[in-house]
Design goal:
The chain has 306 residues and is an alpha/beta fold. The protein contains 10 helices and 7 strands. Strand 2 and strand 3 form a beta hairpin. The longest helix has 23 residues.
Length: 306
């Protein structure tokens, strides 16, 4: 294993300050933007509802029937599709794509064009669920599963990510914050009157910190560590939304008690060996339905005031 140079305390503080400054800068840019225009109307004067969904695999719904885009593993029963049907939107565009990071907001991903290209001036609702792949969800799961055999009762994964003297995953979350803010700033620029909603990630592991080896092959004390890491990610997403004139949807709370350690009849997140049509460590059809209901509840309350 390669040894990384341990950054000194001053360097870490500078890095954190830079991340927070970037967030503040983005918030200021959005805050001084021009007044939003009125929602567009059709030829008969009826208000239009134009919805664009951006995001990664937690949005796209890989393996959930019916798959409508093989390149992006996108389902027509993911939470954006359910939301669009429930709200009877006039126009719906879902460009969420498995494996997407914030970079794919601006660049192609296989046959999927840059996701932000679908946001237009007349778009009046944009949902965004991104950041998990920037932090490294997939590699974290693989690393922690691989390390578990070293100490099943301990926390080998946590030790690995803190070997340099600081928590690498917390640092990755901090480094991802300005990237999310940049995406939100661009959405506001492209669709000035749109309501923008950031969607958080659902509860993947038991909220009480208990484990379920071997169904989820992590060491016992790594379960609370990974749970807390996801909570930090969601807290960052909530903060960035607040700073950038966007609403935030909590999908963690509504899914507590239905994580991937639960029995097949009770879980809404599939384990690493799924029993229902869904990708490992991802929401199944019920999980996407619950996320849709959380989003619909937020939308029904009207836009937040930030």
């Amino acid at each position: 294993m390669m040894h990384r140079k341990r950054p000194d305390e001053a360097a870490l503080k500078r890095g954190t300050a830079i991340a927070l400054a970037a967030l503040s800068s983005c918030a200021l840019t959005v805050g001084i933007a021009g007044t939003a225009s009125a929602a567009p109307r059709d030829a008969q004067g009826t208000p239009r509802s134009t919805y664009v969904a951006l995001g990664d695999s937690y949005t796209s719904g890989p393996l959930i029937p019916t798959q409508v885009d093989a390149n992006c593993a996108r389902s027509d029963h993911n939470y954006p599709s359910i939301t669009a049907r429930e709200r009877h939107v006039t126009s719906f565009t879902d460009v969420s794509c498995g494996g997407a990071t914030t970079a794919e907001m601006w660049q192609e991903q296989g046959t999927n064009g840059p996701q932000l290209d679908t946001v237009k001036r007349d778009t009046d609702l944009v949902t965004l669920q991104i950041g998990g792949n920037d932090v490294g969800f997939g590699s974290i799961i693989a690393t922690c599963a691989g390390l578990s055999a070293k100490d099943l009762a301990g926390n080998p994964c946590q030790q690995y990510y803190r070997a340099a003297g600081y928590d690498q995953l917390t640092l990755k979350i901090l480094q991802t914050a300005p990237k999310i803010a940049r995406v939100l700033r661009e959405v506001h620029h492209k669709a000035p009157h749109a309501r923008v909603v950031v969607v958080g990630y659902p509860d993947l592991l038991p909220d009480d910190g208990t484990g379920c080896f071997p169904d989820v092959p992590f060491a016992a004390k790594d379960f609370p560590y990974l749970r807390d890491t996801e909570k930090r990610l969601n807290l960052m997403l909530r903060a960035v939304a607040l700073l950038n004139r966007a609403d935030y949807v909590d999908t963690y709370g509504p899914t507590v008690g239905h994580d991937m350690c639960k029995a097949p009849a009770d879980r809404w997140i599939e384990p690493l060996r799924p029993a229902s049509p869904a990708a490992p460590a991802h929401p199944n059809a019920k999980g996407e339905e619950v996320m849709a209901q959380a989003l619909l509840k937020t939308l029904s309350r009207g836009a937040g005031r930030h």
